[in-house]
Amino acid sequence: MGRIEQIIELAKKNPKKIVLPEAGDERVDEAIKEIEEKGIAHIVPLDCSNTEKITESFYELQKHKGMTIKDAVKTVADNPLYLAAMMVHLGMADGLVAGASYMSKDVIKAAMRCLGIDRSVGVISGVFVMELENCPYGTNGFFIFADCAVISTPSAKQLARIAISSGVLLKRLFDIKPKIAFLTYSSHGSAEGESVDRARAAVAMVREKRPDFIADGELQFDAAIIPEIQKRKAPKSPLKGEANVLIFPSLDAGNITYKAVERLGKARAVGPLLLGLNKPCSDLSRGCSTEDIIATVALTSTSARSDE
Description:
Elements: H1 3-13, E1 17-19, H2 26-38, E2 42-44, H3 51-62, H4 69-78, H5 80-89, E3 95-98, H6 104-115, E4 125-131, E5 142-146, H7 156-174, E6 179-183, H8 194-209, E7 214-219, H9 221-225, H10 227-233, E8 245-247, H11 251-264, E9 268-275, E10 281-283, H12 290-306
Parallel strand pairs: 1-2, 1-3, 3-10, 5-8, 6-7, 6-8
Antiparallel strand pairs: 4-5, 4-9
């Protein structure tokens, strides 16, 4: 059994309430049917009977930014994403999964406005759980890729926080020791540049804040995950070519790489789970399959379980 299947089985043991505001999409409807049949999660329908309470709560969250009650009413009434996100905020659901038809920027904006940023993390990022069959790299073909959804060009501090939150997820949900590589076009001084500087600074921050994690960079992709190449390109790397958390220098790099690995490498890509929010939320790709939605709901549900 693969690790993604393990997460699905774990979700069944304590199913959480998940809201999917895109019912009507054929893929979502098929996923809901299977999720409920298998007991993976309790799918909560949009609560249109409590819109007054939900709208008032949304107004209270946003009034300091100049929102009027009229604006709040219109936003919640016109956009199911906000209704769903506020249901999670108010405890009517444990997590939100959306993005089959909504664009990522809209899902992320609604999540930020309604769920808020976890100040202990300080940055929102989108992480993918990646699993490849018959792959010797990572943890038997299992990886975390980040950030693939949110920050265009993360600062060194943001990279460090993304790495730590990704490592915590890997340890908490899968009980795997994080081995974090900060990726660039350089391996241990083979080139110089702005992204190289950010990676080096981020490594220092992670090592200071989480000495229990193994972190290194800057590293090229092959030097991070292939021991034989690591020995030639970065012989002193503590990762030993066994990285299982890959931190990308930009959103371009992360998003392109995860899609390439998913499509060309035939990997399972689950997520992105949005880390750094006060409540669990995942943003599906608009190219997702029914299977992707089911796995992402399981991951989101299990993430909610881990917060107990």
